[in-house]
Write a structure and sequence with these properties.
690 residues, alpha/beta, TIM Barrel, Rossmann fold, FAD/NAD(P)-binding domain, 3 domains, eight-stranded parallel beta barrel, five-stranded parallel sheet, 22 helices, 19% strand, globular, binds adenosine-5'-diphosphate, binds iron/sulfur cluster
Length: 690
């Protein structure tokens, strides 16, 4: 295939100060939960992107000094020379594939300093912030502190240069950076030379930028990453102020990287914002400078990317999540295979990993974070270990990924799906408001499978144990999924919820199958992820009077990790959905639900024509159980093994199911056993004290 000429513009080299980027694909800094804890894993993850064609590959935020560190999050560190070798590992891995390596240095806002235990300090005295509600405070920085911060930043620049980076950031974005807090009237109430006028509030940024340029001395490029506004905060940075700040130093850095004023605004899920959602914010900023500009927008369409460049919005197409979902996105466009891009679905499971201080994982890309420890390459996989045939039962995310990856290894695979269309929950849940991109999980896998002559998909094929045995494949993968429970069993009610005779209890599956209860509907969310709030949105849109009840202190509590919670709650309130938190559902009567306040224990009754129980899912394990019961017959039918994967084993997120399918495919015929450690670890000893 040859590249579509409309995309040629994306492959033009662009100069960044003393360096030249080979094309316009730019992996902006992104967190990943690997950071200083797993430098080898980090290097291999970034290297995969460089190999995949990104011209610039950046680190996550990298702390310049323990006086401000971001624990319990795990990000980068360049506190001392002892950190340099870990950075060299990443730099060399990235440069080996022809990409430029960038480092985002950060002195964060006053954080809790859980790790260093140094007294936090910030633009002003007050509670430490950024994500936590830790009950202690930061002190205001005095003139000596400001000199220290400048000195530490400059020293970190020197170390970054010695580590071999091509590009060094001055960072004033995402509400995370001290420099942004100095810029903003919302946080800066100082009365010294660093407070008051915008010239004063931008002084520290300008000083650090000029010292970074001095230290760089033309040896490496210098970038400024800056928030475009703070619309969510009283007295927050305005767009006009940012334009003025950019104007003050427009030609000083070698590159401008524009981001939003908070991570929530910069990385919204697809449920909250479409591809290209930052277009209105960035429009016009490029005119303020002749230096190249980077922008993001969860871009996965090369047409949209090319339009953004042609439209004069940006010189570099920035991406974090699209580069996570498909590290080889640029190479695929270059090869004229844009239809093979594994498109990000905008679910923010990757963000959740980082927020949980866990190694990054991705719904679409099961190899993310596994490049080093499991030696999984995003595009390459070992050839098959035998000529055995494999039967996969169930065409949801787990079954599809198992079939695809087995097919990539060269196995002959048959995938039997009971339903008329493969895709399982990814396709079903994509019908819910805002979740249409979730269908990409199935679409991409079916597209890849369609290219393989040796993987056959049979929709409309419900399989019994007899069917499976008669098929006679050596390996059987049971990926039959799960169904939502009707009995209310779940986290809060391990033994279920009492349902009186004649009461109407629906499950999410009923609604996904087309049930549309009207009147007053109570949704009981004891799952705390997307389903409860998405169904509330669906039913409210259909005219039902919806009350969402949850025993958790927050609506859709787990979506705090995916940066959605506040926006989802706001949306539900806007739709007229009534919300009851910290409330358990103890009995369902005909026409009414009996509730109990989780704090006081007080009971009350709420009229409800129907109750939707969003509590837990039960694995569809009937087929697996029957096959186990007939184990004695396997050998006669040539069946060597039956493996249950995905939701049929233990219901999880779609990311869990995709991972399970991939893991099965990677391990088949490799001799990997239950007693083996599943992956390599990065052990701290022997090592230098740093
Ligand atoms: P997972 O997330 O683990 O992939 P899903 O629930 O999304 O699980 O998908 C399971 C798929 O398995 C569904 O599409 C369902 O129709 C299919 N399925 C369940 N039982 C059978 C069966 N006995 N034969 C064929 N397909 C089945
Ligand atoms: Fe995109 Fe979801 Fe993967 Fe993150 S986890 S990169 S949002 S598909």
């Amino acid at each position: 295939m040859t590249r579509d000429p409309r995309h040629d513009i994306l492959f033009e080299p662009v100069r960044i100060g003393p360096r030249v980027a080979r094309n316009r694909f730019y992996q902006v800094p992104h967190c990943n939960g690997l950071g200083h804890r797993a430098p080898r894993a980090l290097a291999a993850m970034r290297a995969a992107k460089a190999e995949g064609g990104w011209a610039v590959v950046c680190t996550e935020e990298v702390e310049v000094h323990p006086a401000a560190e971001v624990s319990p999050s795990i990000e980068g560190r360049i506190w001392s020379d002892a950190d340099i070798p870990a950075h060299e590992g990443m730099v060399q891995a990235v440069q080996a594939h022809g990409a430029l390596a960038g480092i985002e240095l950060v002195f964060p806002t006053p954080r809790a300093n859980h790790d260093s235990r140094l007294v936090p300090m910030g633009v002003r005295a007050g509670p430490v912030g950024s994500g936590g509600i830790d009950p202690w405070q930061a002190r205001a920085m005095d003139a000596d502190d400001l000199r220290d911060v400048r000195r530490w930043h400059r020293a970190a620049v020197g170390r970054a240069i010695r580590a071999g980076y091509d590009l060094v950031y001055v960072y004033a974005g995402h509400g995370l950076s001290l420099l942004q807090q100095f810029l903003s009237r919302a946080t800066n109430d100082r009365s010294d030379a660093y407070g008051g006028s915008l010239a004063n509030r931008s002084r520290l940024l300008r000083e650090i930028l000029s010292e970074t340029l001095e230290e760089a001395a033309g040896r490496v490029a210098v970038a400024v990453r800056i928030a475009m506004a703070e619309p969510d905060i009283d007295d927050g940075l305005t767009r006009e102020e940012i334009a003025e700040v950019v104007g003050m130093v427009a030609e000083a850095p070698d590159l401008w990287d524009f981001c939003m004023g908070s991570w929530e605004r910069d990385s919204p899920t697809a449920r909250l914002a479409p591809e290209g959602f930052q277009e209105a914010a960035i429009r016009g900023l490029k005119a303020l400078t002749t230096k190249p500009v980077v922008g993001v927008g969860r871009f996965t369409s090369p047409d949209t990317m090319a339009a953004q460049v042609r439209g004069g919005l940006m010189d570099f197409v920035g991406a974090a999540r699209p580069s996570i979902a498909d590290p080889f996105l640029p190479r695929k466009i270059e090869a004229g295979e844009a239809d093979r891009i594994r498109e990000c679905i905008g679910c923010n499971i990757c963000v959740a990993s980082d927020n949980l201080a866990a190694p990054i994982r991705c719904t679409q890309n099961p190899t993310m974070g596994e490049e080093w420890r499991r030696r999984w390459h995003p595009e390459r996989i070992a050839p098959r270990g035998s000529a055995a045939r494999v039967l996969v039962v169930g065409g949801g995310p787990a079954g599809l990924e198992a079939a695809r990856a087995l097919g990539a290894r060269g196995y002959e695979v048959a995938l039997a799906e009971a339903g008329a269309r493969p895709g399982g929950r990814a396709v079903r849940e994509a019908r819910l408001p805002g979740l249409s991109t979730w269908a990409r999980v199935a679409d991409w896998r079916l597209g890849e499978i369609a290219r393989m002559g040796h993987v056959a998909v049979f929709p409309g094929s419900p399989m019994t144990a007899a069917d499976v045995l008669d098929f006679g494949a050596a390996h059987v993968v049971v990926a039959t999924g799960a169904r939502w429970r009707r009995d209310g069993r779940g986290r809060r009610h391990p033994r279920g919820i009492a349902v009186a005779e004649g009461a109407s209890v629906l499950t999410p599956d009923d609604l996904l199958d087309g049930a549309a209860p009207g009147g007053s509907v109570l949704i009981y969310d004891d799952e705390h992820y997307v389903m409860g709030s998405a169904l509330a949105e669906l039913l409210a849109g259909q005219g039902a009077a919806v009350t969402l009840v949850t025993p958790a202190p927050l609506v859709a509590a787990w979506t705090v990790h995916t940066l959605e919670q506040a926006a989802v709650e706001r949306r539900l309130v806007g739709l007229g959905v009534r919300l009851r938190t910290r409330t358990a559902l103890v009995r369902i009567d005909p026409g009414a639900a009996i509730l109990r306040d989780e704090v006081t224990g007080a009971a009350d009754s709420l009229p409800a024509d129907a109750v939707v129980a969003v509590t837990a899912r039960a694995p569809c394990d009937g087929l697996a159980a029957e096959l186990q019961a007939r184990r004695g017959e396997w050998a006669d039918h040539g069946v060597a093994g039956v493996t249950v994967i995905g939701d049929a084993l233990a219901p999880g997120t779609i990311a869990h199911a995709v991972f399970a399918g991939h893991l099965y495919a990677r391990n088949l015929d490799t001799g990997a056993g239950a007693d083996d450690l599943p992956f390599r670890r990065e052990l701290p000893f022997p090592g230098e004290a740093g």
